[in-house]
Design brief:
This protein is α+β, with helices and mostly antiparallel strands. The protein is built from 7 helices and 4 strands; from the N terminus they run βααβααβααβα. It is globular. Bound molecules: inosine-5'-diphosphate.
């Protein structure tokens, strides 16, 4: 006889969160960290960094050639970014829920982008945060932003 499957517990995993230059400029770094911690995730690494063209080319490789790619890179070069590694069960999809939809106008109230972001009428979504979208992306992105972690 086979036993019924146990309800699955999400694996403990790590994700890369970025407070993008708009979020840092607006003084929202602490608010984003607060929401991550209030949700019950653990901060593993936090560092304010000035991104480089090379780092962004690797980070956003999947978007190369799209119309918003160059404006996105220019925006990400416009000031420091707070890079964060957060850990917890299900933190990869969990942080994406905290962040809300990519377009801050459409992001639900209660989310970081829904509560704190809006459309600034620019060519790129200045949507305050980034969060890895899969275990593969998380491993790749953590390696880019925190080599040696
Ligand atoms: P995500 O950040 O919600 O995962 P992605 O599709 O990975 O969204 O896009 C990366 C970033 O590129 C977004 O956060 C946003 O800043 C920008 N972006 C994505 N799609 C568009 C678009 O259609 N117009 C302008 N900017 C965009």
């Amino acid at each position: 006889t086979t036993l019924p499957a146990e309800p699955s517990t999400p694996a403990v995993e790590r994700t890369l969160v970025l407070v993008k230059p708009d979020g840092v400029r607006r003084g929202l770094s602490g608010e984003v960290l607060r929401r991550i911690e209030a949700k019950g995730y653990t901060l593993v690494a936090v560092e304010l960094k000035q991104a480089t063209t090379e780092l962004l080319a690797a980070h956003y490789a999947e978007h190369e050639g799209k119309p918003f790619y160059q404006p996105l890179v220019d925006f990400m070069l416009s000031g420091p970014t707070l890079a964060v590694v957060a850990e917890g069960q299900g933190v990869i999809p969990g942080f994406r829920s905290l962040a809300g939809a990519t377009n801050p106008t459409e992001a639900a109230p209660g989310t970081i982008r829904g509560d704190l972001g809006r459309d600034w009428g620019l060519k790129v979504q200045q949507n305050l945060v980034h969060g890895s979208d899969s275990t593969e992306s998380a491993a790749r992105e953590i390696g880019l932003w925190f080599p040696g972690l």
